[in-house]
Design brief:
Number of strands: 0
Mean pLDDT: 83
Strand content: under 5%
Region (Disordered): 1-23
InterPro entries: DUF6328
Largest sheet: none
Helix content: over 70%
Pfam family, one: DUF6328
Number of helices: 4
Radius of gyration: 22 Å
Distance between the termini: 28 Å
Structural class: mainly alpha
Protein name: DUF6328 family protein
Transmembrane segments: 37-57, 69-91, 111-133, 139-158
Low-confidence stretches: 1-9
Amino acid sequence: MASGTTGRDDAAPARTGRRESPEERADRRWVDLLQEVRVAQTGSQILFGFLLSVVFMPRFTELGDFDRGLFVVTVVLGALATGALTAPVSYHRLFAGRRRKPQLVDAAARLVAIGLVLLALTVGAALLLLLRVATGSAAAAWIAGAVMAWFAACWLLLPVLQLRRHNGPAHRPPAG
C-alpha cells in the first residue's frame, strides 16, 4: 500500500458509523430534521400569532415611538423566523420525486438554522418590549440581553463544548 493511502477504495462512500446507503442516510436525516422543526416551528407560530394580536390591544396606542419601532422589528423577525422554519415543507414539495433528498436535507437544515437564529432574536426583542412596557426600567435591556446570552449558551455554546469534549476539536463528521 502506498504511503498516504487509507487502504479503501476512494470511490466508495465514506462510512457514517451506520450501515446505510446515501439514500437511507438522507431519509434518516430528513426525519430527524422534521422532528426538530416541529418544536421550533410551533413556538415561532404561537409567538408570531400573539404578536399579531398585540396591535389591536387598547394599550398599544400608549406606546412611545421607540416601543412601536421595537414592536415592528419584533413582528418582522417573527415573520422571518416563521418563514424560515416552515420552508422545509415547501422544499419538500418542490423536491419530491426528483431524487434530490440529500440536497433537500442540506438546504432545509440551513434554513432551520437561520430560523432558529431569527426565533431567538424574536424572543429577545419581544422580551425587551414586554419588560420595557411592564417595568419602564432601563434594566429591561440588561435582562433581555442576559436571556439572549442564555439562548446562545444553550443553543450554541453547550452543544459545541459537548462535541469537543466527546470528539476532540479536530474531529469532524463526514461531509454530506
